TrEMBL record:
The keyword Membrane does not apply. The lineage of its organism: Bacteria, Bacillati, Bacillota, Clostridia, Peptostreptococcales. GO terms for biological process: negative regulation of DNA-templated transcription. It comes from the Bacteria. It holds the Pfam family GntR. One of its GO terms (molecular function) is DNA binding. Keywords: DNA-binding, Repressor, Transcription, Transcription regulation. PROSITE patterns: HTH_GNTR. Residues 3-71 form the HTH gntR-type domain. This is Trehalose operon repressor. InterPro entries: Bact_HTH_transcr_reg, Chorismate_lyase_/UTRA_dom_sf, TreR, Tscrpt_reg_HTH_GntR, UTRA, WH-like_DNA-bd_sf, WH_DNA-bd_sf.
C-alpha cells in the first residue's frame, strides 16, 4: 500500500513539473508540508522525493530544501564532432555567441602539453560565451595552432570557426579525443555564465585532429550542469 502511495504522489508532482505548474528553480514544499498536503507518513514523502531526484526532476540542497530542475535539457552528442552553430541549428533554438577574448599568444607549458606545440610557438586563444535563449550556459575556451589556422577575426569567432576552417582554409577535420569531468566552477565561469545556484560545471576537454592526424585544436567546453544531457550510441560489435 505504501509503495502505491509514494508512486502516486511521485506521478502527481512529476506531472506538475512536466506541464510547467511547478517552474524550474522554484523551491518544492518542505517534507512537513508535503506530509500534511498528501496525508501520508514522512517515510512515504522521502521515498517520493528520492525517486524525483533519481529521475532528474528535483535537486536536494543541504539546509535549503528541494528545488525543481529544468527538465528541458539539450542533447549534446559525446561521440560526434559538432560545432555550436550546428548544434543550435539542429535544436532550432535562438542562440548567440559572445567573443570575450581573441588573441594570438605564445605557447606556455600548458599548451606545449595539450596542443603538442613548441614553447613560444604562436597559438590563437579564443574565449566565447554561448547563449541559448536568454541564458549564458556554455563557456568555450579554444586554442588553435597558428600553423594550421593562420588568421582569425571576431566575426569568424562569432559565426563558426569550423565552417571557416573547412570552407575557407579547405582543411578536413578528422576526429577528436574527449574527456568529460565535473569540476567546481571557477571565477571565470562565474563571470561569463549564468550559473544561478550551481557551483559545479561539466567540462568537456577536446583534442581535435585533422584527417592527416595533425592536432590543431585543444578546447575546454564548460557547461552549466542542469542544461545538457550528454548522449552517445554504442554498438558492441
Amino acid at each position: 500500500m505504501m509503495n502505491s502511495k509514494y508512486l502516486k504522489i511521485y506521478n502527481l508532482i512529476k506531472t506538475k513539473i512536466e506541464n510547467g505548474e511547478l517552474k524550474p528553480n522554484t523551491k518544492l514544499s518542505s517534507e512537513n508540508e508535503l506530509v500534511k498536503e498528501y496525508n501520508v507518513s514522512r517515510e512515504t514523502i522521502r521515498k517520493t522525493l528520492n525517486l524525483l531526484v533519481q529521475n532528474g526532476y528535483i535537486q536536494k540542497m543541504r539546509g535549503k530544501g528541494s528545488f525543481v530542475l529544468d527538465i528541458n535539457k539539450f542533447d549534446f552528442p559525446v561521440s560526434g564532432l559538432i560545432s555550436f552553430k550546428e548544434l543550435a541549428e539542429k535544436m532550432g533554438t535562438r542562440s548567440e555567441t559572445i567573443v570575450n577574448e581573441l588573441e594570438l599568444m605564445e605557447a606556455d607549458d600548458f599548451l606545449v602539453k595539450h596542443l603538442e606545440v613548441q614553447e613560444d610557438d604562436l597559438v590563437w586563444k579564443v574565449i566565447r560565451t554561448r547563449k541559448i535563449g536568454n541564458e549564458k550556459i556554455i563557456l568555450d575556451k579554444d586554442f588553435f595552432n597558428k600553423i594550421f589556422v593562420p588568421s582569425l577575426t571576431k566575426e569568424i569567432c562569432e559565426d563558426s570557426i569550423y565552417e571557416y576552417i573547412e570552407n575557407t582554409l579547405n582543411l578536413e577535420i578528422g576526429f577528436a579525443k574527449k574527456e568529460i569531468t565535473i569540476e567546481p566552477s571557477s571565477e571565470e565561469d562565474e563571470e561569463h555564465l549564468d550559473l544561478g545556484k550551481y557551483d559545479m560545471v561539466v567540462v568537456v576537454k577536446n583534442y581535435v585532429y585533422l584527417s592527416d592526424t595533425s592536432l590543431f585544436q585543444y578546447t575546454e567546453s564548460r557547461h552549466r550542469p542542469d542544461k545538457f544531457r550528454f548522449v552517445d550510441f554504442a554498438r558492441r560489435r
